[in-house]
Amino acid sequence: MSIHSPLNSRAITLVVIAGAVLVLGSCSVISQGTTVEPGNVGVKIRTLGSGAGVAPEALPARWYFRGIGEKIVQFPVIQRTYSYTRDRDERGNENEELSFSDNTGLPMTADVSVTLQVNPASAPMLYQTYRLTFDQLLDGPIRNDVRSAIAAETERVSVETLYSGGRQMVVQKALARVSGKWARHGVSVSQMDWIGSIRYPSAVVDRMQEKTKLEQEALAAKALEAKETALANAAIAKARGEAEAIRIKGEAIRANPQVLQQQAIEKWNGELPKVTSGATPFVKID
Fold first, then answer.
1. For labelling, which of 23, 37, 47, 68 has a CA lying 20 to 30 Å from the CA of 95?
2. Are residues 199 and 81 part of one domain?
3. CATH label of the domain that carries residue 89
4. Are 202 and 174 in contact (CB under 8 A)?
């Protein structure tokens, strides 16, 4: 029969407690770590102490320990394309289509994509300026600037201009507006495109389609008229040519009457007419 002393029991209890503290401490360290993913940089924000604020240096991709009162926000530094659409996308179910109007105030909407990239060194200042994550920037200030730039350009033109091919000019001018602003914050906006067609009011679409149909019919009629004119001119030219040929031939015969005599001889089959009026046969033999 073995006897356990109170000292041994206390020692075992202390070991168990120490092990539990170590395990909990390890879990706490792990929970206070952040991995900056490849293709991103991190921005460290301190919320406590005399050093509170945004750290000026961007954090490259790797694992980082976060102290008490610290958090790390990630910004993508590789080129990416984002879409503002009516339908759901990878960023959520919200309707993010852009609305704008032409120079008469006619309302329209469209889906638009932007391609952009954050300068790694500019990420801390970008966060310090807006205090927003990159997704929040996309949903807020960047989207607002894209919509405002497109609206400012479409208000300069008519819906007919947009419908007939002017929309590419509009989106390129809008891109210049947006890229100019965000370049100052270290964000390169390199491309902006329409996704699909602009959504015009149905009455406008019907009117434009009817106008296009009439224009096509007018072009077809003009082409037919040009063809008929060409054929008529060709016929006139042919008739003139034939008349000129007859005139020249007549002048030649009048100048050389023996030509007719020669042609008659060449065509005569050697038989004299069966009935005559007593005149001399038409073939004159000298």
1. 37
2. yes
3. 3.30.479.30
4. no
pLDDT, greater one: 167 or 273: 167
Tally of domains in the chain: 3
212 lies in the same domain as 98:
no
* pLDDT, position 232: 83
For the stretch 166-171, contacts whose Cβ atoms lie closer than 8 Å and that sit 24 or more positions apart, written own/partner, are 167/194, 167/198, 168/194, 171/112
Ranking 75-84, 191-200, 248-257, 274-283 by mean pLDDT, the lowest is 274-283
Say if residue 70 is in the same domain as residue 38. yes
Phi, psi angles (nearest 5°) of residue 106: -70, 120
- As to burial, measured by CB atoms within 10 angstroms (0-12 exposed, 13-18 middle, 19+ buried), residue 87 is exposed
Q: Residue 276 is which amino acid?
A: T
- Report the predicted TM-score, pTM, of the whole model to 2 decimal places: 0.62
What was the pLDDT predicted at 165?
86
